[in-house]
């Protein structure tokens, strides 16, 4: 059921600035900034050979990362994203096992044009988990 690590996300007040050091110091390939109003964030990706780092900054009112940045003014690791083959089947199994799906439980289209869901950090050892249908 659990697939590849799609990305590790870092929340920051300035995603472009945060990504730049990865380009300059690590020679990583850095994407353009993309605004995702439905998710309340702007994303910038650094692509690594085996995964990605997703830099997210708040977008609009009521961004889901606003409180996190109030608590972590310098930014911090925000979530990890695992790939799954069938997001609905995975969601249903996770719920049956007692995990809480965030929001209304209906997948949204994520940064890669694929369905995503988030799982409560309290059910995953304090780590916010995103699942993405590969
Ligand atoms: C574009 C897309 C993509 O990749 O495709 C994305 O990633 S969009 C990425 C942004 N979207 C999301 O994050 C959507 C899902 N996130 C949410 O619904 C929310 O951020 C929650 C995870 C429910 C947190 O809500 P909120 O920030 O309002 O905080 P809260 O005070 O209610 O938090 C409840 C408890 O969870 C903890 N908590 C909050 N955010 C956390 C995080 N990122 N990692 C670990 N723990 C976290 C708080 O410290 C608190 O613990 P205590 O009770 O112990 O103090
Ligand atoms: Co993400």
Automatic annotation (TrEMBL):
Which InterPro entries does this entry report, sorted A to Z?
Answer: Glyas_Bleomycin-R_OHBP_Dase, MeMalonyl-CoA_epimerase, MMCE/EMCE_epimerase, VOC_core
Enumerate the GO terms in the molecular function aspect.
methylmalonyl-CoA epimerase activity
Query: Keyword annotations for this protein?
Result: Isomerase, Metal-binding
What Pfam families does UniProt report for this protein, alphabetically? Glyoxalase_4
Which superkingdom?
A: Bacteria
Fetch the CDD domains from UniProt.
Answer: MMCE
Q: What class of enzyme is it?
A: isomerase
Query: Which family is this protein grouped under?
Result: Belongs to the methylmalonyl-CoA epimerase family.
Name of the protein? Methylmalonyl-CoA/ethylmalonyl-CoA epimerase
